[in-house]
Design brief:
This protein has 631 residues and is of the alpha/beta class. It has a domain of 125 residues: GMP Synthetase, Chain A, domain 3 (2-Layer Sandwich). The protein is 31% helix and 24% strand. It contains 18 helices and 30 strands. Strands 12-11-8-6-7-14-15-23 form an eight-stranded mixed sheet, sandwiched between helices. Strands 5-4-17-16-18-19-20 form a seven-stranded mixed sheet, sandwiched between helices. A four-stranded antiparallel sheet has the order 21-22-24-25. Strand 19, helix 13 and strand 20 form a beta-alpha-beta unit. The termini are far apart. The chain binds 5'-O-(acetylsulfamoyl)adenosine. The site of 5'-O-(acetylsulfamoyl)adenosine has 22 residues, from helix 10, strand 20, strand 24 and strand 25.
């Protein structure tokens, strides 16, 4: 059933109805799915524990809704066009029927390796069709997938495997990334030295780099799949059974395993996919996000398949073989809806108009952005030069924890305002609060963004540590879910996200905790202490600025910096490498030992004229040293 909202009036009506009777509203949106058993109760909740249940009593399998449900009507329609890293290599496409077959065979293969309902399976793979197939195969048998972005280091992978005791790891020999070929199986091998829970590793041959296979543990995907039947009934799942875990960075400690469950996630990702992009039958949709992030889960795998869409899945990067690759792919597949990150737009903008003008972009109807605030300049460039002035841009605000898009225009319906995510989707009850938690009513206000009522795809817990979920999201402002973002509601009631207000930074649309980067830097033998802050970066949105105290005087600072970068790469991955490293003799701390990050941020931003009150510092003189040494 097509649940698209057709007009602004209807949006307003639908929004009002979702506030007045949320249960009736979401029950209506859940009706058309295939349920093995209908739910007993639409919603029960409290934000104190927190405890959230949607569609309790319902039984279903999300893959039946992604695949089986479509076979009759669109079995021969393409579900995915796969575009390989190398434009000269052969691509592949999968119809719904073919995808269904592959998922069932993969599901049987997982069963053959001992996987069963409730087991955790770690997926560490490049953007190949088998990644999507693996995700769905887990869901088919009721196993919980934990996809780890293949750019993360062995140490990061190990900690994610350990946190949820994954019993299987699915990987490939190598990965292509533009001109580079990356050995990823060896990363898995290194990680598994400290992961006793893992029984088997399934390896997809992809780049054919030589690898070591551990006897009794490692198996080749291509060999095992041969032995697996393509008939696999879907495991009946409870509405609130865990669907997946996805690790994301917070302001403290190690990344947390955000838990999403089955039915609510299904209903919300489908509804938002259809409405935000106004997806129409037969259109080609392309989201450039890696499946290792939430955008890939919700809007590359589940949302589009639930809606019966045709998607492009791209293995490579925007600048290989040249900066025209995105535009070439849009031309090749006649992409109608294109969804990417502001950082990609900003970097391609720098290459000028020679690239986009070489290709036909006339198939485009809707453009989207996600992951970070988009600056007005990039917005206008995207609108004018990619959308040719006639494609709406949906600036979609949401989080790993929200599971789906929360604030966004509906393409072609909501009047746009550059750099504004505009209005909440139906079912989303936003509030803006001040530092004390006082709700700021009316328009023309700015504060911290919270949500006061549950929505179906919201986080249920953080894996293995419910208290952490409560502390992180539900304790700052009792009774509210706190997003960690700052936000403005303008005179028209339009929302603009101003960025994180906690110690999380957003580098090229990737979320990183400053504490996590500091811990990595501190692993360097000569480092005593460090403090990391974000600063505005022309392409990445935010760059990483590290202040580092060393135990001894080092003459070769360039070398030291390289070593620190290598340490961070080893502990987390390339995405967390600092852009700037300033060696300091001390940090600005209060008498109680708290680092005054406000000062460090100012210096990193290059704004030292107005540093504010430093009288509470233990050693105010350190501020002058830091200012003088700023990079
Ligand atoms: C989807 C995703 C979440 C954080 C979030 C924000 C920032 C995301 C936008 C945005 C401004 C946007 N999940 N963010 N989308 N900021 N405008 N349209 O990115 O968990 O990885 O990150 O990203 O700070 O809290 S995420």
């Amino acid at each position: 059933m097509d649940t698209r909202i057709p007009s602004l009036e209807k949006y307003q009506e639908e929004f009002e109805r979702s506030l007045a009777s949320p249960e009736a509203f979401w029950a209506e949106k859940a009706e058309h799915f295939s349920w093995k058993k209908k739910w007993d109760q639409v919603l029960s909740w409290n934000f104190e524990e927190p405890h959230i249940e949607w569609f309790a009593g319902g039984k279903l399998n999300i893959t039946e809704n992604c695949l089986d449900r479509h076979l009759e009507k669109r079995g021969d329609q393409v579900a995915y066009y796969w575009e390989p890293n190398d434009p000269a290599a052969a691509g592949k496409s999968y119809t719904y029927k073919e995808l269904h077959r592959e998922v069932c065979a993969c599901a049987n293969m997982l069963k053959g390796l001992g996987a069963k309902k409730g087991d955790r399976i770690c997926i560490y793979m490049p953007m190949v069709p088998e990644l999507t197939i693996a995700v769905l195969a887990c869901a088919r048998i009721g196993a919980i997938h934990s996809v780890v972005f293949a750019g993360f280091s062995a140490a990061s992978l190990a900690s994610r495997i350990q946190d949820c005791d994954s019993m299987l790891v699915l990987t490939s020999d190598g990965a292509y990334r533009g001109p580079k070929s990356i050995a990823i199986k060896s990363v898995v091998d290194e990680a598994l030295e400290i992961c006793p829970s893992v029984q088997k590793v399934l390896v997809l041959k992809h780049t054919n780099v030589p690898i070591e296979m551990v006897e009794g543990r490692d198996l080749y995907w291509q060999e095992e799949i041969q032995k697996s039947s393509a008939d696999c009934p879907a495991e009946p799942m409870d509405a609130e059974d865990m669907l997946f875990i996805l690790y994301t960075s917070g302001s403290t400690g190690k990344p947390k395993g955000v838990v999403h469950t089955t039915a609510g996630y299904m209903v919300y990702t489908e509804y938002t996919f259809r409405n935000v992009f106004q997806y129409q039958e037969g259109e080609v949709y392309w989201c450039t996000a890696d499946i290792g992030w939430i955008t890939g889960h919700s809007y590359m795998v589940y949302g589009p398949l639930l809606a019966g869409a045709t998607s492009v899945l791209f293995e490579g990067i925007p600048t290989f073989p040249d900066a025209g690759r995105f535009w070439q792919i849009i031309d090749k597949y006649h992409v109608n809806i294109f969804y990417t990150a502001p950082t990609a737009i900003r970097s391609l903008q720098l290459f000028g108009l020679d690239f986009p003008t070489q290709y036909s972009l006339s198939s485009l109807r809707v453009l989207g952005t996600v992951g970070e605030p988009i600056n007005e300049e990039a917005w206008h460039w995207y609108h004018q030069h990619i959308g040719k002035g006639n494609c709406p841009i949906v600036d979609t605000w949401w989080q790993t924890e929200t599971g789906g898009i929360m604030i966004s225009p509906l393409a072609g319906i909501t009047p746009l305002k550059p750099a504004f995510a505009t209005l909440p989707l139906p079912g989303v009850q936003l509030v803006i609060v001040d530092q004390e938690g006082k709700v700021l009513l009316g328009n023309g206000v700015e504060g911290n963004l919270c949500i006061q009522f549950p929505w179906p795809s919201m986080i249920r817990t953080t894996y293995g540590d419910h208290e952490r979920c409560k502390q992180n999201y539900f304790s700052t402002y009792p009774g509210l879910y706190f997003t960690g973002d700052g936000c403005k509601r303008d005179e028209d009631g339009y929302y603009r996200i101003t960025g994180r207000v906690d110690d999380v930074i957003n580098v090229s649309g990737h979320r990183l905790g400053t504490a996590e980067i500091e811990n990595a830097i501190n692993q360097h033998a000569d480092v005593v202490e460090s403090a990391v802050v974000g600063y505005p970066h022309e392409i990445k949105g935010q760059g990483i600025y590290a202040y580092v105290i060393c135990s001894k005087k080092n003459d070769d600072l360039a070398m030291l910096r390289l070593e620190i970068m290598a340490t961070v790469q080893k502990m987390i991955g390339s995405i967390a490498k600092p852009d700037k490293i300033q060696i300091v003799s001390g940090l600005p701390k209060t008498r109680s030992g708290k680092i005054m990050r406000r000062i460090l941020r100012k210096v990193a931003e290059g704004d030292v004229s107005n540093i504010g009150d430093i009288s509470t510092l233990l050693d105010p003189a350190i501020v002058d040293e830091i200012k003088a040494g700023a990079i």
